[in-house]
Design a protein that fits this description.
The structure holds two protein chains of two kinds. By secondary structure, chain A is mostly beta strands. Chain A is built from no helices and 13 strands. In chain A, a hairpin with a 2-residue loop joins β1 and β2. Classes of the chains: A mainly beta, B alpha+beta.
Chain lengths: 141, 504
């Protein structure tokens, strides 16, 4: 590929010209993610993408690709929140889609549902508790 | 005239109110929680008073702390903004009892309109049409279920003191009713401290039209035309515009007259909004039935679209009316010109069922475009906290026609890079591009059923440009400085390194 020109035009702002077409790209980097915005579209890539063999797809994390992630066991808090209600105890048999825990954050109830038919193997939270993002709340087997 | 106003709110609305105060030479007092000690609204006020810990229940919802802050700061008036205590009759009463001017209606009007049950009764008595529904005296699960069976499904179980979709559940089949009733009551109890429920028939293809009203203490009440708020997600508004593309002059005349009637019947003072559901299923808008839904006894989030088409300052009018002055305009002086449309930018992820997002705004650049107003309380490097509403900004575009206003809003959103937190901006752009939205055929259920259509991944042809920019920051080792600390990228800018430097 030839004729790629990148000029920094301000803090976090780059004018990128590829074969005569020019776009403004805004970029920012956090500990875990590289972010870019171009024409109102947002692009995210995981920062440690080196362990993937295909660098072009490494850690690509766009709107469409992320949807499956919530399906993964076990059940973790998607964001910092208060546990409003725990609806299961260890040993409970749950079906895909059953609500297991109700969190509250930003004044809204967030039901956390089982991603598959499973048995509750452990419960790591109680009502009223403030939990951090990614805290495992319920383990399923 | 009010001399010193305490603003019992935060974020963009606190800043919006301060702007009106400055133009009227009213001193401003901000209140802030521990999480907001360095927030834009805290720093912008003439003085600021801390009112407690980050959780809203301990700060922005603490009536005692706010009354105390008003007393110690020497304020003579309180503006509640929207949300928080704005529709809390107990707060308005506490202000009245403390000798403070409450910028809003009297506490007994808030109480009456805040109870959806009493509001329905008031409107029925005044001859304003209401949605068919029932208010069970027996508030037990069984009692509410009986009322639900009477009204028939589909129905909505709603919190008597609710709003913004909180404490509300849809019931499609009576077999789902028990869960819905309990969830609605729990959410209502938690959000509003009152679990009273009522049932309303769900209009199948409803258009949500609301009318801005204002009344003064001299017996005058006016409307400032309508706003269209049909694009909603789980009963939370996403796009608002004025005029409504569904309202014909004949319907406008009928619906605004009903709103003024509602204002007079409820003994209204100051700014408020009459929400109506319009049933267009019969086809002819001129004669379409509409139903009173609720009266919002406060300034609305979306008041800006009305300000742009009517060329008025609603907050200024609120402050004048609260000071006992007459309304600054007569009905005949008010006109609706051009088209205004607002998009609410939220820190939320459309891909994960619109989950609210918290984090740091690594990069945040508001658009500066003629004809575009941005109301926000955020700055680059600010943290979006889990404690408060995830709305980051309101972007409002004004133009001669609806099509031009949409084009202008779309361009404004595309020129509004926000990085570090996932926002709904790409989703909003797709929504504005949707043929159904352009043709104004969307009803309030559209987003609940067609969200997937608006989730297409970013256009592939932009990826090489993004990759080139990433490669550039890798080469310059920009991300060596990257962290969650403020301005990781901007900190490599030579101008930002000039700490301690002073203009000689």
């Amino acid at each position: 590929m030839s004729a790629v020109d990148v000029a920094r035009i301000g803090p976090g702002a780059y004018a990128v010209t590829i074969e005569g077409r020019r776009e403004i790209v805004y970029v920012a980097v956090s500990a875990k993610t590289r972010w870019a915005s171009c024409r109102g579209e947002v692009f995210r890539e995981a920062e440690d993408s080196t362990d993937s063999t295909d660098p072009t797809n490494a850690g690509r994390d766009t709107q469409g690709a992320r949807r499956d992630k919530q399906a993964a066991l076990p059940l973790a808090a998607p964001m910092p929140a208060t546990v409003l209600k725990v609806l299961v105890t260890p040993g409970a048999v749950v079906k895909r889609g059953d609500t297991l825990v109700i969190l509250e954050a930003m004044k809204m109830e967030l039901p956390l549902r089982a991603s598959a038919d499973a048995v509750v193997s452990a419960v790591h939270c109680h009502a009223g508790e403030l939990v951090k993002a990614d805290t495992v709340l319920v383990e399923l087997a | 005239m009010i001399r010193r106003l305490l603003i019992a709110n935060r974020g963009e609305i606190a800043l919006r109110i301060m702007r009106a105060c400055r133009e009227l030479d009213i001193e401003t007092v901000a209140v802030y929680s521990d999480a907001d000690a360095g927030a834009a609204h805290t720093l912008a006020a003439d003085r600021a008073v801390g009112i407690g810990p980050a959780p809203a229940t301990d700060s922005y919802l603490s009536i005692a702390s706010i009354i105390d802050a008003a007393r110690t700061s020497g304020a003579d008036a309180v503006h509640p903004g929207y949300g928080f205590l704005s529709e809390n009759a107990g707060f308005a009463r506490a202000c009245e009892e403390a000798g403070l001017i409450f910028v809003g209606p009297p506490s007994h009007v808030i109480a009456r309109m805040g109870s959806k049950i009493d509001a329905r009764r008031t409107m029925e008595a005044a001859g304003v049409p209401v949605v068919p529904g029932a208010t069970p005296d027996d508030q037990s699960d069984a009692g509410v279920l009986r009322a639900l069976a009477q009204v028939g499904v589909p129905a909505l179980v709603k919190a008597s003191s609710g709003g913004g979709g909180k404490g509300m559940r849809e019931v499609e089949a009576l077999s789902d009713a028990a869960d819905a009733i309990q969830a609605a009551r729990r959410e209502a109890q938690h959000a509003f401290g009152n679990g009273t429920l009522y049932i309303e028939r769900r209009i199948v293809r409803p258009y949500h039209v609301e009318v801005q009203i204002l009344a003064d203490t001299h017996g005058r009440a006016v409307h400032v035309f309508e706003r269209e708020c049909s694009v909603q997600r789980r009963h939370q508004k996403v796009i608002e515009e004025s005029p409504s593309p569904h309202v014909t002059p004949a319907l406008r005349a009928r619906i605004t007259a009903a709103a003024v009637k509602a204002a007079v019947a409820s003994g209204y003072r100051n700014a408020g909004t009459c929400e109506f559901l319009v049933d267009l299923s019969a086809g002819d808008a001129d004669t379409a039935p509409f139903y009173f839904l609720e009266m919002n006894t406060r300034l609305q989030v979306e008041h800006g679209v009305t300000e742009l088409v009517a060329g008025v300052d609603l907050v200024r009018a609120q402050l004048l009316v609260a000071s006992g002055e007459p309304l600054p305009w007569t009905q005949e002086q008010l006109t609706q010109r051009g088209h205004a449309i607002e998009a609410r930018v939220y820190a939320e992820d459309p891909a994960t069922d619109f989950l609210p997002q918290a984090g740091t705004l690594l990069l945040y650049r508001e658009p500066r475009i003629p004809g575009v107003r941005v109301d926000s309380g955020m700055r680059e490097a600010d943290a979006v906290s889990v404690h408060y509403d995830p709305m980051l900004a309101k972007v409002i575009a004004y133009a001669e026609t609806r099509a031009l206003a949409i084009a202008r809003l779309r361009e404004a959103l595309r020129s509004f890079p926000i990085l570090g937190i996932t926002t709904n901006i790409p989703f909003l752009v797709r929504l504005l591009d949707h043929p159904g939205f352009r043709a104004a055929t969307l009803d309030t259920s559209f987003l609940d059923h067609h969200t997937q259509e608006l989730m297409t991944p970013p256009s592939e042809d932009l990826q090489p440009f993004v990759d080139a920019a990433f490669a550039a920051i890798d080469r310059t080792a920009d991300h060596g400085t990257a962290s969650e600390s403020p301005l990781p990228e901007a900190s490599t800018d030579p101008w930002n390194r000039l700490t301690g430097w002073r203009m000689p």
